[in-house]
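Input (structure):
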């Protein structure tokens, strides 16, 4: 007989007060630990093995920096902002994560999905403010300052609504929206870290994240097609943006710019070929080929000396200023307009960062702190928002490149930031003649990984049909409705799938494996023997209010006995017998004597005297679940059938005790509860 341990009662009030006193106390040692935990760089940098790590960090930092510059300029199209702001974002994110991050290998910076989400909010607010979303106006020829926007867009906004400066034009207002959105998202992430809400990421399953990324990739691809072929169409907003954009593309396909089409075709062929060769021979290459940088340099030179903008009206990036714009506090009034949009942005940014950090930590055998990662990515958004930057996250492609080029620590992030700084201070104006179609090609080719998920659908379907359905629903909603609603739809649908699975779980009658004390599903396995006079029922889910009816229906169906119907039939039969007796008939309707009647009250279909319920898969019971078991205990007892529970975990046993299933004094508990199915079966066989 196994005896439960007696639990020591804990005074929760005293425990909470002790924790509160401990957390509120301030000692030099505790303050030092707090600072070192908040800035992990203070722990690992003094132990940095320069001779062992420096070469790998420098190489990976240079490679990522070279990749980062063209990607930052390209992703500015997604965010609806000028390229200079993308460079600012990449610079500050690497520096701050170097100080606060716990992952050694993650590359934090500009990310296509985050840029898309920022761009959708920026476009919406610009449209509401009365600005023209068409960004294909001739670039300004002034000093290249970001404040020099095109004249048609300076006075189109009612300047008193959001409390902006009267001289603020379209570009100024756009970056104001982006920085306000980024600041609020960072505040959300820090608050989630303070209140330890990292568990929110658990509700984003792999299927939801993959579907969201694929759907967003389709949206990104659609938004870049107009740059590929050089047509001028309005930037669609709201739900169904993907469909509306494609309709506008086909309506205006006759206006395609031949120069942009030829340039795009050449760039895509070169980029895809280089990527495929790089993937095929990556084990022979010490670092990835900087194809994007080569394409950008060559395309810029061709565009500049061929005067493609002047001769063929090819759209170019325009002036990119050098240096840093003075910092500015994000506009408080704009924060209220984007507070709701910042929540999904904060969650997606955090989830991608933590999932990539955990992947790298598992691969290279070290640990990360998810809560600190939330603080790190939060401050990667809050602090840069004062320096005209927008939201950031960890990026899978750059992280994989970083690990493959010998990265050891986040020192590589500082090297990457220095490469970006070099461009910011000296090289940015050289990209003036770079065609936008080239940037669109870089973005589209970077989506190869996400778009290849379509090839995995058959394999995914073979592994798990429900997860495949979650992926399809999330992907479709993200692409056809909007990215934020697609993410919400994916989360809700995946949770509904879990609920449905527990509402209609597998149920089975078990048979005995011959010459053993083990029992399995007699529909799934051959050569199982049934136990005479005993039925063994398995329910593979928690028993709670949502699946109570299914539990009872399955039990009655598999045992071929509904105790309520049987009880009603008995009462009806007894009533008929009494009527026969009153008439003075010595025989019943069956032709039997009165003494023999009681033997025939129960029809022959009841071929068992004990029902064993295998509770090994029942993880918990709620009040409805306990009452359901009490109900079948009473109903079957009226038919002289005993109910025996087997393999209950301690949580289920405690719920049954509190619900009064075993009676007041638990005296009959040893005759109702068993630690194995075989023990319950043996007990049932020994019963008279």
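Output (sequence):
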């Amino acid at each position: 007989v196994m005896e439960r341990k007696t639990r020591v009662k804990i005074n929760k009030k005293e425990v909470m007060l002790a924790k509160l006193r401990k957390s509120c106390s301030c000692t030099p040692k505790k303050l030092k630990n707090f600072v070192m935990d908040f800035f992990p760089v203070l722990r690992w940098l003094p132990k940095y093995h320069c001779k062992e790590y420096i070469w790998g960090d420098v190489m990976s930092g240079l490679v990522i920096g070279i990749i980062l510059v063209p990607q930052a300029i390209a992703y500015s199209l997604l965010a609806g902002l000028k390229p200079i702001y993308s460079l600012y974002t990449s610079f500050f994110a690497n520096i701050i994560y170097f100080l606060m991050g716990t992952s050694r290998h993650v590359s934090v910076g500009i990310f296509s999905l985050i840029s898309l989400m920022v761009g959708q909010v920026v476009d919406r607010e610009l449209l509401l403010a009365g600005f023209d979303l068409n960004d294909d106006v001739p670039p300004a020829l002034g000093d290249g300052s970001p404040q020099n926007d095109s004249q048609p867009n300076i006075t189109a906004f009612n300047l008193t609504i959001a409390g902006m400066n009267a001289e603020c034009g379209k570009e100024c207002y756009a970056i104001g929206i982006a920085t306000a959105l980024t600041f609020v998202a960072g505040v959300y992430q820090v608050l989630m870290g303070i209140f330890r809400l990292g568990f929110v990421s658990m509700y984003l399953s792999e299927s939801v994240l993959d579907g969201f990324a694929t759907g967003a990739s389709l949206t990104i691809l659609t938004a870049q097609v107009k740059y590929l072929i050089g047509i001028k169409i309005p930037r669609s907003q709201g739900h169904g943006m993907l469909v509306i954009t494609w309709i506008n593309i086909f309506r205006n396909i006759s206006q395609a710019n031949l120069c942009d089409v030829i340039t795009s075709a050449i760039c895509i062929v070169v980029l895809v070929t280089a990527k495929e060769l790089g993937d095929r021979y990556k084990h022979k290459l010490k670092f990835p080929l900087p194809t994007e940088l080569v394409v950008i340099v060559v395309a810029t030179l061709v565009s500049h000396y061929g005067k493609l903008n002047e001769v063929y009206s090819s759209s170019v990036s325009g002036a990119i200023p050098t240096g840093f714009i003075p910092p500015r506090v994000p506009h408080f009034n704009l924060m209220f307009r984007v507070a709701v949009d910042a929540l999904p942005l904060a969650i997606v940014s955090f989830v991608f960062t933590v999932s990539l950090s955990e992947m790298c930590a598992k691969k290279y055998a070290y640990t990360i702190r998810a809560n600190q990662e939330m603080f790190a990515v939060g401050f990667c958004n809050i602090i840069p928002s004062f320096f005209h930057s927008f939201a950031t996250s960890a990026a899978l492609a750059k992280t994989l490149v970083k690990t493959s080029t010998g990265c050891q620590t986040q020192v590589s992030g500082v090297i990457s930031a220095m490469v970006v700084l070099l461009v910011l201070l000296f090289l940015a104006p050289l990209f003036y003649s770079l065609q936008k179609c080239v940037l669109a090609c870089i973005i589209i080719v970077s989506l190869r990984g996400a778009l290849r998920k379509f090839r995995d659908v058959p394999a995914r379907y073979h592994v798990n049909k429900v997860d495949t359905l979650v992926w399809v629903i999330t992907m479709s909603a993200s692409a056809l409705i909007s990215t934020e609603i697609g993410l919400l739809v994916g989360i809700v649908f995946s949770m509904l799938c879990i609920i449905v699975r527990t509402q209609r779980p597998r149920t089975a009658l078990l048979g005995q494996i011959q010459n053993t004390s083990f029992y399995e599903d007699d529909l799934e396995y051959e050569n199982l023997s049934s136990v005479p006079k005993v039925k063994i029922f398995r329910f593979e889910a928690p028993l709670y209010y949502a699946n109570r009816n299914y539990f009872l229906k399955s039990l009655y169906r598999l045992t071929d006995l509904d105790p309520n119907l049987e009880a009603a039939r008995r009462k009806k039969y007894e009533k008929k017998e009494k009527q026969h007796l009153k008439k003075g008939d010595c025989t019943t309707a069956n032709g039997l004597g009165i003494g023999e009647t009681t033997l025939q009250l129960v029809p022959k279909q009841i071929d068992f005297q004990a029902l064993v319920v295998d509770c090994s898969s029942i993880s918990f019971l709620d009040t409805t679940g306990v009452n359901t078991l009490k109900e079948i205990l009473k109903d079957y007892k009226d038919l002289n059938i005993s109910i025996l529970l087997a393999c209950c975990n301690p949580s289920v046993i405690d719920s049954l005790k509190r619900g009064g299933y075993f009676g007041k004094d638990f005296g009959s508990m040893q005759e109702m509860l068993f630690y194995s199915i075989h023990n319950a079966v043996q007990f049932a066989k020994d019963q008279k």
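Notes: Residues 50-133+167-500 form one domain. Confidence is low (pLDDT under 50) at residues 136-166, 594-602.
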